[in-house]
Amino acid sequence: MGSLPVLASPECAPERRAKVSASDLAPLFSAQRRHLDHFFDRLDMSQAAAFAQALLDAPGAVFFTGVGKSGIVARKIAQTLASLGFARAGFLAPVDALHGDIGAIFPGDVLVLLSKSGASDELLALAPCARAKGAYLISLTSAASGGDCPLSAACDLNVHLPLQGEICPFGLAPVTSTAIQMVFGDTVIAAIMEARRLSRDQYASNHPAGKIGKTLIFKVKDVMKKQNELPLCKEGDMIMDQLTELTSKGCGCLLVVDEEHHLIGTFTDGDLRRTLKASGPAIFNLTVGEMCNRNPRTITAEAMAVEAMEKMESPPSPVQFLPVVDDNNIVCGIITLHGLVSAGL
Where is the CBS domain positioned along the sequence (predicted)? Predict the structure, then answer.
């Protein structure tokens, strides 16, 4: 292993408050951009296409593996591929694989090995064992094929990820090479999504929780208020007689309907304030129908909840609610911005 220098303990080190300024960051981001441009300009698209096709055509499972930071990237790419639902995909820890976990590999499976150097001892030990199990081996390395990249020689396919350098002060820490690996893996997966024509419903079926799942799964009918929760009134009702209905349902509005519950318009607490300011005592003689908005934005119960939020926020000015109506303009609910936020959207 060689000899490592003995470092002073933190307790003995002199106190000095480190600082990072914008002028320190700017050249690093510029360097990172140059390194990424180097990667994009020199990536062999035929190799990338062959890699994507191998994943698409995999008859069995697709495993990803790597050591250190490359292993973390491998795990992330595996999880993203698994989330599409097209193939069984997972991460295979190289050391654990050599101690029994390689039993998960069957003939026809694909094993993708990520390594900046292409010379990781753990991966070089794993490759022939995986091949003996009948796996198809693909290496993703930043070392070009040849004597400096023994992993590429051990695999059926090598994809070279061109690396100009790391932006770490020593040029050693994998702070650019891992970004390249992540960008490459995620871009290929996006291409697979398009090739397989992944639908929103298919994607949603694998994301039932969290922001993604709620955005893709929740419909207006899942979060709207209905029946006794609706703030309803008739257009002939006096405004002052409907104050309790206006304030008690927590919607900040009244839905003005006819006898068959067809939507006529809406009357908001903002409309109340404006009417009171403009009319003064005359407000006691005004009906809701005289002052309501007869052309409100509406939405259907089967629309996606995220669509309701977009509609609320659209020009010319945002609103806090949408009446929910059916094809005959009959009110069946109301969806509020507060309700959407409370649902996690």
Answer: 224-283, 292-345
* pLDDT score of 15: 64
User: What is the reported pLDDT for 30?
Assistant: 96
Q: How far apart are CA 200 and CA 213, in angstroms?
A: 10
How many other C-beta atoms lie within 10 A of the C-beta of residue 103?
8
One-character DSSP codes across 229-248: GS-EEETTSBGGGGHHHHHH
Q: Is the Cβ–Cβ distance between 269 and 253 less than 8 Å?
A: yes
Evaluate whether 139 touches 157 at the Cβ level (below 8 Å): yes
Distances (CA, A) of 315 to 110, 271, 286: 50, 19, 30
CA dist 304 and 36 (Å) reads: 38
Cα–chain center distance at 102: 31
State the residue for tokens 């024509």.
197
pLDDT in the model for residue 104: 95
For residue 151, the model assigns a pLDDT of: 95
Which segments of the chain have a pLDDT < 50? none
Contacts of 202 (CB under 8 A, 6+ apart): 84, 85
Matching residue, tokens 């300009």 = 41
How many helices (H) and strands (E) are present in the chain, helices listed first? Answer: 15, 10
What is the rounded distance in angstroms from the CA atom of residue 39 to the CA atom of residue 180? Answer: 7
pLDDT in tens, 311-322: 999 888 889 999
Q: Are the C-beta atoms of residues 11 and 147 closer than 8 Å to each other?
A: no
Q: Judge if pTM exceeds 0.85.
A: no
Pairing of strands 321-325, 331-336: antiparallel
> Residue type for 89, please?
A
